[in-house]
C-alpha cells in the first residue's frame, strides 16, 4: 500500500509559501547589502559560519523513496525530501496508521545480516542513514518506551560506581545533579568500567577497563590506570553509532548476554569493521549505550538537549493530567474522590465478569476461556500463545523500561497465564492461576 502522495501533498502545503517568500527576498535584496547575522551559528552549516548566506538557507530538495515496515511485517512506501527527520516520518506514520501519539514511536535502523539495530534520534535525517544501508537492511516502525526514559529517571541509568565524578568526589556531588551535568555541555561526566571486547578476526574476547569521554572511547593498557600514557583510543564518537545486537550470544561466542556494538556511521560496513562489546549485566550495558548517545549527540548541542528535555516534560504533564471519568449516566463527569474512583474501577471489573459468565452460559468450548471476546483478549497487552523467548524479545525490543509488561497463555499449564514483566531492568515471568468466584 503506497502512501507517499499524501505525505508530499502535506509537505507541499507547508513548504511552498516559505519558498515563495525566500525567492521574493532574494530578488528584492541587492547583492551589495551585508549578510544577515546568524543568531544560532552552532545550528548552521558544518562550517559553523556566523552569518547566513544564500547557500546556507534551506534549499528545495529532491524526493527519495524509503520503505518502512511495521511490527506485523507490512511495509509502506514513503516518499520523503532529503531534509526530513526521523521524528517527521514517525509523526506522519502515526497519523496515517491512526496510532496514539504517546512520544514512544521510533524509526529503527535494522541490519538483518549483521544482527544489529538502533533507534534513530528524532533529529536525524533519514535519507543519509538509508544511503549507508545495505539492500538487506530496512527501517522498522515500532514503539520504544526507553526513548526518553533517561529524562524521567536518570539515576536508574548511571550506577554510582560507573560515573567518574561520584568516585572522585566520594559522593559529595549528589546523583540528583546528574541530569543537569549532562545538560551542561561544558561538564560531561566520564563513564568507566570493565567491558569485554571481541578481538578482530577471532572468536575470543578480552576484558578491558574502558573510559567513555566526549573525545571518544578509550581502554587502558595497564589495568585500571587513567594516565594518558596508558590510554588507547578505540573509536571516535563522531564517526560511530551504537547498536543493539539482536542475535544470541552463541553467534559471536560472547561471554554474557549483554552485547552491544559500535558501528561506523559513514558508508556500508563489513563485519570486520564492527566493534563488538559485552557488559556484565543489563544495567551496565544500558549505562554505556545511554552515555554514548548523550555524549555523541546531545552534550555538544545544549539547544538540542534542552529541546528533548522540554519535549519529554510536555508528555509528562499530559500523562499527569489524566483523570478518572464516570460514564454510567447520560453524560460523563470527572471523579475527584479517590475512593469513588477505586469503587468505579471495581464496578467496571464486576461488569466484565458478569458479561464473561453470561457468554459462558450461552456456550463455550473452554471453561477457562469462555469467549475470544473476554476482556483480556481484547487488550493490546495480551499476546496469546507466544513462547517465553518471544515475550522476552518483545520486552527487550520495546525498551526494557520498569513497568513494561505483557500477558500470555502458559505453555506448561493450559489453565494458567504468564505475566512477563520488566523490573529493575530485568525481565521476569510470573504464572497466574485464575480463581473462580
TrEMBL record:
SMART domains: PH, RA, SH2. InterPro entries: BPS-dom, GRB/APBB1IP, PH-like_dom_sf, PH_APBB1IP, PH_domain, RA_dom, SH2, SH2_dom_sf. Residues 1-22 form the signal peptide. Keywords: Cytoplasm, Phosphoprotein, SH2 domain, Signal. Pfam families: BPS, PH, RA_2, SH2. The keyword Cytoplasm applies. Belongs to the GRB7/10/14 family. This is Growth factor receptor-bound protein 10a. It comes from Cyprinus carpio.
